[in-house]
Every structure is written in C-alpha cells, then in structure tokens.
Automatic annotation (TrEMBL):
Keywords: DNA-binding, DNA-directed RNA polymerase, Nucleotidyltransferase, Sigma factor, Transcription, Transcription regulation, Transferase. The gene is rpoN. PANTHER family: RNA POLYMERASE SIGMA-54 FACTOR. It holds the Pfam family Sigma54_CBD. One of its GO terms (cellular component) is DNA-directed RNA polymerase complex. InterPro entries: RNA_pol_sigma_54, RNA_pol_sigma_54_core-bd, RNA_pol_sigma_54_DNA-bd, RpoN_core-bd_sf. Residues 42-74 are annotated as: Disordered. Residues 124-315 form the RNA polymerase sigma factor 54 core-binding domain. Residues 330-487 form the RNA polymerase sigma factor 54 DNA-binding domain. Residues 47-63 have a biased composition (Acidic residues). Belongs to the sigma-54 factor family. PROSITE patterns: SIGMA54_2 (PS00718), SIGMA54_3 (PS50044). This is RNA polymerase sigma-54 factor.
Amino acid sequence: MGFEQRQQQVQKLAPRMIQSMEILQLPLLALQERVEQEMNENPLLEVQDDDPQLPDDPEETYENPDAPTESERELVVDNDHDNQDDFERLLNMKNELPNTFDEPFRKSSNQMQEEGDRRHDLMANAEAHPESLNDFLLHQLAELDIDTDVELMAERIISTLDARDGGYLRTPLSDLLPSNHTPEDLELAKRALAVVQSLEPTGIAARDLSECLLLQLSDKDPYYEEMKTLITGHLEDIAGNRLPAIQRKTGYSLDKIQKVKDELHSLNPKPGAAFMETYVPTVTPDVIVEQDDEGQYKVRLDDDRVPTLFISEYYRQRLQDPSATTEEREYIKQKINGAQWLIDSIEQRRSTLTKVSQAIVDHQKAFLDLGPEAIEPLKMQQIADRVGVHVTTVSRAVDDKWIQTARGILPLKRFFVGGTQTEDGDDVAWDTIRIKLQEVIDNEDKSKPLSDEDIVKELKKHGMTVARRTVTKYRKKMGIPSSRQRRDWMLENK
C-alpha cells in the first residue's frame, strides 16, 4: 500500500455566502415570506418605514449600478474573535436612528393592523374551490329516480373517474364488484354504468376512445351512420390522415370522408378534462424595465413591498449595558450577527439583480423594440462576463424571476436562447428560426406539404442552415404534424 501526496483546490463557502446566494435566488414573494419569517424568529430585526438616510428628492435616489455599494464590500467573518469588527460597526450605528425603544421588541399597532389587513385580503381574494367532476356527476345522479342498489353502484363507478384522465372508466366493472359476484351483480353494474354514461358531460365514463365518441353521437347528426363507421373501424386512418385508404375500404367519396372527419373533430375526446383544476401561479415581476426620454431602457427593482430592515437600537444599547448577563450578551451577539447577514444579503440581491437585469436588457434591446422575432442568441456566461460575476450567480439571479416590459411580463430566463449562424456569419436565435419555420409551413401548398428535408432547403434560402433532425425536433415541439398529416386531399382533387 503506497501513499500519494496530492495538491487539490477546494472551495469552501462561509455561512454568510451561502445565505447570500439563497436570498439572491428567491423571487419577490418568497423573499417577502422569508423576511417575515426572519422577523418572527429574530426580535432584533425592525422595519424602517422611512429611511432617514434617503434624500427627500426621489431623483437623488438613482445609483450608478457600476459603483461599489456598501453591501458589496467584503464582509468580515472572524469566528476566532467573535466577529468583533462587525459588532463595533453595529455599535457605532446607535446615533443613526431615533432612540425610541425603551422595552424589548414587540409589534407596533400599525404592524399588527397591516398584518390583519394582509390576512383579510388573502381570505377575501381566495378563489372559491371549483366543483370537481365527481361532485358534478353525483349531483346529477341524486336527481334521478333509480333503484338504490343501482345508485350505489353508480356512485362507486363515479368515484373511479379522474378528470386528469379525461373522465374515462379505466377500472373493469368486475373489479368494482366482490370477488364472489354473480352474473346478476355484473348485470347491475352494467345498468349503473349506462346511468353514469347518460350524465353530462356527454361521453363520460367511456372505456375507450371509440366508446367515448359513440356516446356523443345523435341519430340527428348529419352523416350519423358514416360517423359510426369511421369511429368503429377507421380511427387510426383518421389520425394518420389516410383518407384514400378509408375511401378504398368504405367506398365513400373523399369529399364525404373529409366532411365526416370535420364532424368527428367537433366531438370531445376527453369530456372530463374540463373539470381539471388548473393552477395558475401568481406572477409578480421582480424587475420593471422602462424607457427614458432618450429611448434607453432602464431597469428598476419592484421590491417596495420588501421592508427596509434595521437592527433594534434597544438591543444595541443593551449589548453595552454592564448589567447585561453573559448569556444575554451572547444571545444578542448571535441575533445581531444573523440580522446583519440578512440585511447585507438583501442589499446584495438588489445590487446583483439590478446589474444582471440591466445587462440582459442592454443585450436584447432589439427584442424589446421589434418583438420575439428579433431576439438575439444569449448565454448566461456572456452576462456573467459583462457584470463580472460567476455564471452560477447569474443563474441564481434570473431563476424564477420575472420582468415587466412593454411586451408583457416575461421570465428573465426567456431572454437566454441558443442559436446558430447564418451563411453571412450573423448570429440568429433558435426562436427566430422557429418563427420562420412556422411561416414556411403556413405558406406551403397543402396539397403537397413540405417534408422536413424540404423545410431545411426553404430555411437555407433565408440564410438559415439547420439540420433536418433539428427541424423535426422543433416541429414536434410546436405541435405541427408531419407532412402526411398536413396534406389536404381535397385540394389535390380539385
């Protein structure tokens, strides 16, 4: 067994740096929650309604984002000396704020009123819980005059239906019955299923797509018999747009098949999906971009709802009070340290997010001026180099953050896109290529739609060199069917 000496560089992050990165990554609403949590846990933290250091003139609040700020200077982490430098700096702050604290921290009446108003608004604005698919069916079932045993079985069937699956019955009827069930029990289950399938929405509790569509047919529908024929024997051909194959098998004309196909498309293949609870997250922009008088885009943080924090004067004075016990002084030191770390981390977040956002906006000015088709390729490393931070800092800064622009509220990550080069050597974003791809398909001859290889050639005419597999990938992502499925057989016969 031998020994080998190896020199290795290992990066260790101080607790303060870890917290700073965590705070940077938080979106606005999460940051508000974090501040409230810290205030509940740390009695030394106070909210400063009016910052005495801010000038009265709002125009004087502009800061040069390139200038170093107090929060950006290197912080002292000296565990061997109880962070003495930090505490001396904090103790010297005693004259900066009015001495209004003559008792330990407690929430002011204004704070309690604001907290009560916030809770009231949350309750008042809470959306009513939408009616589920199961409840909707059970309410209809309760209005029917049917035998109790049939009703109970129908309730059991309804309990298995899932709106996320379109409301299909995926469980065999025999599995809903006792293991020793009789033929009579199975017949009762079939009667109960017929009852459930008679409810709204039409097509509910179907066991497959064919049954779902058949349940939605009416003998009053035009092409009723033809629709039944296509549903029961030609759904795969319909999905593949193989109309000539259907013509050979049924003897129907292409014109009739196309009309029947159009009627089938009016049916709902997932009738229960309308009852899915769709969660739409509340989007609160962290950054707002506006144009100044010279047409330049400037960013500002929309973090007015994040309170300005400071450390309680009472506890700073208590730390110097000779009557304070050792345990009390240690407790205050610990809480002061945590409070200052939080304050510095929030200030660092403001500075970093402002610089990163401004760099992104400067790079994507054409996007803001002209729209999505003008977006330029951009990598996070480019912004990191421009701002002078590590690429992981940029990643954390833009993660789950939104920016309000004249073109809507967009995620900051929206501005980072890959790309390729044109034949002239100009950079072009993949978003631009996708827009052009859609334009090419929209303008194609539907009687002879373009194959993916043909689309490659069309893009090349516009100076965009793209591989066929890339075209196929983006076409599928955009939900565009293949050339065979896009073919309009009626145009070919005109």
